[in-house]
Every structure is written in C-alpha cells, then in structure tokens.
Amino acid sequence: MTIPGKSDAVAIEALRNKGYKATPQRIAICRIALHSREHPTAQSIYNEVKKVHPTVSLATVYKTLQMLRDLDLIHELNFPQGQARFDPYIKPHVNLICQQCGKIEDLDDPTAKEISERVSANTKFKPNGQRIDVYGICQKCNKVNTL
Amino acid sequence: MTIPGKSDAVAIEALRNKGYKATPQRIAICRIALHSREHPTAQSIYNEVKKVHPTVSLATVYKTLQMLRDLDLIHELNFPQGQARFDPYIKPHVNLICQQCGKIEDLDDPTAKEISERVSANTKFKPNGQRIDVYGICQKCNKVNTL
DNA sequence: TTACCTGCAAACGTTTTGCAACTGA
DNA sequence: TCAGTTGCAAAACGTTTGCAGGTAA
C-alpha cells in the first residue's frame, strides 16, 4: 500500500539532485519504497512495480534499493531466515515486530533518540545511526490468541 | 577468544536440562558460543571447534546455534551482506557496531531496559525481546582515522 | 551522443536439508 | 537398545554481478 500524491515529482527531484538518472523504473520503485509504511521486502516491491512496469527485473529493484540505502533514504532490516525489509522512516524510532504475523510497526518514542545521545555522552564511540527492535506479539494477534 | 573455566560442566547441565544430548561437538560449540564476547560468526565458531574436533561439520555448528537460539541462550544479529553474528549476552543492552572494523561491543545502559517497559506501558504490544544497535565508529578506528 | 541504466541469466555466499552411519544415555 | 545426532553433499535461498542492448539527458 502506497500513499498517492505528487510522489513522482518528489522522487525525480531526489534522484536528479543526487546525480542519478530518473528512469521510469526507479521512479516507480522509489514511489513504493519511500512511501510504504509496511516495511516491504524487495520481492513485494518488485511485485508492486511489475503492475506498472511488467518487464522490470528483480535486479533493478535490488540495485535501486541499494542506492536508496546508500543515500540513507531507507533503512534495511535483516532477520534470520527471510528477506530483508525496508523502512523509509529514518528518524530514531522503535520497530515493533510481531513474532506471530510478521508485521512491523514504527513507534515514535523519545527513548529512541536518547540511546545515541547517551552513547555519545558516556563512551568514546561516535554514533552514526541506529536500529531498535522490540519483538513480541501485536495487539491483533494477541486478541486472536485469547479468543 | 573464550573464557576458560568449568564451562563444560555448565554446558552439559544446560543441554541435559533442556532434553538435548550432550555430545562432544555440542559441548565444544556451546563452550565457544556461550562464552565468547566477540560476537562470533558460525564460520568462526566452526574454525575454533575444528581445533578440538577436526571432523566437525559446519552443518552441526549451524544446527547447534539454532538450538541455542531457540532456547534463548544466544541472540542472532543479521546484517546486510554478510554472516550472522551471535551474542550470548541476552540481557537488554546496546550493541555498538563499528562500521569501519566491524567490531561489536556490548554496552550496558539503563535506557535499554526502558525501551520494552515503555512499549508495554504505552502500547498494546506485548514485548518479548529486543535488539538495540548503534552504528558508528569505535574509539580505536576513530583514533586511527585522525592520525 | 554517450554515460548510465536495464533485464536477463548466471554466479555467489550463507544457511538449511536429506540421509545413511553413528553414538550417548 | 534406539531415538537423537553427526557429517557429508546437495539444495535452497536471498542477493549480487557481468554484460549486451537500450535510454535519459
């Protein structure tokens, strides 16, 4: 699920500003990757893009995601056995990861920002980015379980 | 680097208590995996174990690590392009991950424990475990860089 | 015009699996 | 004794790469 709007213009701008060509495939991939709140996988982005560009290849999706990761426009979340998931929400936050249904939800919490600040203040380590996962059972699954 | 001591007895106890057979291979793998502070990979554990059991297979290492993960005796940290790293320190803490040398250091910080508590208090999500990574440059690399 | 990009297919590296032989309890 | 475990080899899986043809600027 993507958020419609003037995403194309935004993506084209972003690509050109960084010195990349704004190809239709990239625009489509960016539109999905940068606006999805569902932490899509490369494969699910591929499936979406194929609806618009039926001949797009998975390799192009991977290359574009790598580009977006290098530009720090998305974060990549890797897990044991399974595909990586991508998150365009790059501000410090908590990933609530349901161990039952696999859903990942972003949670804003002031503690998330504190972590790096405390590392800076208390150690000689120079922080640059972060990832906070909390694993458990989401509200929906919890409800279903207790029926 | 492992911490020597009565590790064998501890590992044998732990395995038997969980209903697993205490084979020499498992004992050796546990000894390394449960006592290393260096966040080893499956391959590096395999290399260590081979010194004692030259015929051990990588498959056995993977199977044993999976077992330890299922028992929640170790955590598995996955990253883009590369091998998973394993951490026997399972209390809430911060992983300081150097983007230059790859070293991972565990940092105890009270904020780490707070995260799950805040999720519990403020959402309907039922936390079960967590992972906190801070990416950046470690003291050693930082020193080298500024020479 | 041309440097960059695409799509294909093949390669890659890590992890998992199937299975016959073996072994801890 | 025998269910559970090992080691091997092969498979599986997600991801990356090389390259010939195509395209944005």
Strand and helix layout:
The structure is a homodimer of 147-residue chains.
Chain A: H1 7-17, H2 24-33, H3 42-52, H4 58-70, E1 75-77, E2 85-87, E3 94-98, E4 104-107, H5 110-122, E5 126-137, H6 139-145
Parallel strand pairs in A: 3-5
Antiparallel strand pairs in A: 1-2, 3-4
Helix pairs in contact in A: 1-2, 2-3, 2-4, 3-4
Chain A binds a DNA duplex (25 and 25 nucleotides) through residues 16, 20-23, 25-26, 41-43, 55-60, 62-63, 66, 80-84.
Defining key terms:
homodimer, 147 residues, alpha+beta, Arc Repressor Mutant, subunit A, Dna Ligase, domain 1, 2 domains, three-stranded mixed sheet, two-stranded antiparallel ribbon, 44% helix, disordered N terminus, DNA-binding
